[in-house]
Amino acid sequence: MNHTLYTFIAEDAITDTKLFTLKCNCGGTITIMSPFQEKQIICPQCESIIKLLVVSGDPGYIIGAEENGKPKLLPVQGSKACPIELLTEQEKSDILNKVKRKIKEPK
Ligand SMILES: [Zn+2]
User: Ligand 1 centroid vs 43 CA: distance in angstroms?
Assistant: First the structure.
């Protein structure tokens, strides 16, 4: 069965490199090459379609939402930030709170 996945890539991680190794949710890896014009690739292992979304700089994490609408941290591949699976629940909620506060602050 083919799935469509979305993955975020830190722009900083691909600006100074010729090769970037992307990880699929299934654990498979795909190497993409400069100038990184692909908008989507197919995982050779699980055949998922992976849509690539390059985010400027290195934001660390992207805030997404779970099915119930609860905010959730999403990883940014190539980011220098600590991988989400290594964060404690407390650290995760701290990051989410920080982002929420940023959103609320008037400009
Ligand atoms: Zn895969």
Answer: 5
What would the DSSP string read from start to end of 24-75?
-TTS-EEEEETT---SEEE-TTT--EEEEEEESS--SEEEEE-TTS-EEEEE
Q: Measure the CA–CA gap between 58 and 41, rounded to whole angstroms.
A: 22
Residue 6 Cα to ligand 1 midpoint, Å, equals 12
For 55-69, the pLDDT digits (tens) are: 999 999 999 888 898
* Residues, beta carbon < 5 Å, ion ligand 1: 24, 26, 28, 43, 45-46, 48
pLDDT(32) > 90: yes
Query: Checking DSSP bridges between strand 49-55 and strand 61-65, what pairing results, if any?
Result: unpaired
What is the Rg, in whole angstroms, of the alpha carbon atoms belonging to the chain?
15
Distance 5 CA to ligand 1 centre (A): 9
